[in-house]
Design a protein that fits this description.
alpha/beta; five-stranded parallel sheet; 10 helices; 22% helix; globular
C-alpha cells in the first residue's frame, strides 16, 4: 500500500514511524515544504538562550534519517493541491509541479504566524517566530538589537521576550489583554509573573493595541499603540497561529475558521484522507467541545491514530485532551491544563474556582518559595475542570496529575484524599496539589492548613 504523508512535524513523524512499525514493506512518500525535515519549534527558545548551540540540534529527525528508514523523502516540496477523485496531490518544487498518487493520504497542513496589515508591517527587522527560518533570523538579530518590542504576550511572545531580555536587550512586551499569558493563566498568577519580569527588566504593557509601526530608510524604528509609542530596532509579532489550509478550501470540509474537520479516527470528509496537527481541532476533556489546541503532544497522538486507521486497524481513537502545557518565564515554571478564566464560559455548567498560595517544601529543608495555584471545578458536582501552577520551584510534573484527574472526571474530594507520597526532599505532609483541593472544598476536614512548617 502506498502512503503519502504531508508535513514532517510531530503528526507526520509519528504517522510514518507507526506505519513502519506495523508494515515494514509499506511504500511511504513524505513531503516537507522546508529544506530540512522535522524542526522542533518547541525547542527554539533554547536556541535563543544559547542552550542549544545549533539549529540542527532541534531536528528530531532529518532528511537523511528518514531516507535511511527507506522512506521516500521529498524536501523543499510544497503540496499545493489535492484531487480526492483521482487520489493525487500536486507538488510544487524549484523544478516546477508534479503529481503523486496515493492509496492513503495523511495531511498535516500546519499553521502560520499571522502579521496584521497595519502600517509598517513590511519594514525590515519585523519578524515572526515559527519554524527554523524564523528561529535563525530572530537569533541572528539579537547580536545587533538594542531595543526590541514583542507584540503578543502569549506562549511564543513570552519565550522571545524572555530570551531577548536575558541577552541584555531593552525589551517591551505588549498585549491587548490586561495581563501576561492571558490564555494560559489568570490574573492572580500573572501578577506574580509580571512582577518577576519587571525585576528582570522586561517591560510589560497590557490593554494596548498596536496602531502602526514606524520606520526610517525601510527599517523599523518604533511601535505606536493606542496609548503610547515605543522605540524599537527589532519587532517580533507573536499573536497566535492560524491554519494554513486555504489550498484545501472546497476540497475537504473546513470549518469557518479554516480548521480541517476530522472525527476521532482523524478521518476527513474525503475517503482515505486523514488529518491532524495545528490545522485541526481536538475535543476538550473539560468541556467536551472541539477546540484548537496547537500542542506537539496532541499532534503526536493524532499521528498514531491516523496511521493505525489508515492501516485498517481500528484499535485506538483520539481521546479528549485538556491542553496541558508548560513553559518557563525567567526563574519561574508555569504550567496549566483545562479551562481558565478566559474560556470558562465554554463549559455547560456552573464553574467555580479557588486560588491558593502554598509552600512546596517544609521550612527545615531550607528551600524557600511558594507555588501559586488556581483550580477550576463544577460548582455543583466538584468535578475538576482545570488548574494552573506558577513557582520558582520545578512543579511542572504536578500538572499532569490534574490532567489525569480532568480526563478521569475526578472530583475535588477524590483529589484531596488520593494516595500521594510524602518525603521532605520533595514535598510536605500534604502535597500542594492536595492542599489546593482541600482549600477549594473550604477546609472542611483535615489539617492541611495547620501544619507549623
Amino acid at each position: 500500500m502506498k502512503f503519502v504523508v504531508v508535513g514532517t512535524s510531530h503528526f507526520g513523524y509519528e504517522a510514518v514511524q507507526t506505519i513502519l512499525k506495523q508494515d515494514e514493506t509499506a511504500e511511504i512518500h513524505l513531503y516537507e515544504a522546508a529544506e530540512e525535515a522535522s524542526f522542533m519549534s518547541c525547542g527554539a527558545q533554547s536556541y535563543l538562550e544559547d542552550i542549544a548551540q545549533e539549529l540542527d540540534e532541534l531536528h528530531f529527525a532529518n532528511n537523511a534519517s528518514y531516507a535511511d528508514q527507506g522512506i521516500h523523502m521529498h524536501a523543499a516540496s510544497k503540496v499545493i493541491d489535492l484531487d480526492t477523485e483521482t487520489k493525487t496531490i500536486t507538488v510544487e518544487t524549484a523544478d516546477g509541479t508534479t503529481q503523486q498518487s496515493y492509496d492513503k493520504l495523511l495531511l498535516s497542513p500546519g499553521g502560520y504566524a499571522p502579521v496584521p496589515k497595519f502600517e509598517g508591517h513590511d519594514l525590515e527587522h519585523v519578524y515572526t517566530f515559527r519554524g527554523r527560518e524564523d528561529a535563525g533570523v530572530v537569533k541572528e538579530r539579537m547580536a545587533q538589537s538594542k531595543k526590541a518590542v514583542v507584540i503578543g504576550a502569549g506562549y511564543i511572545g513570552v519565550e522571545v521576550a524572555t530570551a531577548y531580555t536575558q541577552a541584555g536587550i531593552d525589551t517591551v512586551l505588549i498585549d491587548s489583554f490586561d495581563h501576561i499569558l492571558p490564555t494560559y493563566v489568570d490574573i492572580e498568577l500573572a501578577e506574580q509573573l509580571e512582577a518577576h519580569a519587571k525585576e528582570k527588566n522586561l517591560d510589560f504593557h497590557g490593554n494596548e493595541k498596536v496602531q502602526k509601526l514606524t520606520g526610517q530608510d525601510g527599517k523599523v524604528t518604533g511601535v505606536v499603540t493606542d496609548k503610547q509609542e515605543y522605540e524599537a530596532d527589532t519587532v517580533v509579532v507573536a499573536i497566535g497561529v492560524r491554519p494554513d489550509t486555504d489550498w484545501l478550501d472546497g476540497i475537504i470540509d473546513l470549518d469557518d475558521k479554516g480548521y480541517v474537520e476530522i472525527n476521532e479516527n482523524m478521518e476527513t470528509s474525503a475517503p482515505d484522507v486523514y488529518a491532524g496537527g495545528d490545522a485541526t481541532k481536538v475535543v476538550n476533556a473539560a468541556t467536551g467541545k472541539k477546540t484548537p489546541i496547537a500542542l506537539a503532544t496532541n499532534a503526536r497522538r493524532q499521528g498514531i491514530v491516523a496511521a493505525l486507521h489508515a492501516l485498517g486497524k481500528d484499535t485506538v481513537k483520539m481521546l479528549p485532551v485538556a491542553g496541558t502545557s508548560a513553559l518557563h518565564v525567567f526563574d519561574y515554571t508555569v504550567v496549566t491544563t483545562g479551562i481558565s478564566n478566559i474560556n470558562k464560559d465554554s463549559y455547560d455548567g456552573k464553574v467555580a474556582s479557588a486560588y491558593v498560595e502554598e509552600k512546596v517544601y517544609p521550612d527545615f529543608m531550607r528551600k524557600p518559595g511558594k507555588v501559586y495555584m488556581k483550580i477550576y471545578f463544577d460548582e455543583d458536582t466538584h468535578v475538576i475542570l482545570g488548574a494552573q501552577f506558577v513557582s520558582v520551584h520545578d512543579v511542572a510534573d504536578a500538572i499532569n496529575a490534574i490532567s489525569i484527574a480532568i480526563n478521569a472526571k475526578w472530583t475535588l474530594e477524590q483529589l484531596a484524599m488520593v494516595d500521594f507520597y510524602y518525603q521532605p526532599n520533595y514535598d510536605r505532609p500534604w502535597h500542594f496539589v492536595q492542599v489546593l483541593a482541600h482549600q477549594a472544598l473550604g477546609n472542611t476536614f483535615g489539617g492541611a492548613d495547620k501544619i507549623l512548617f
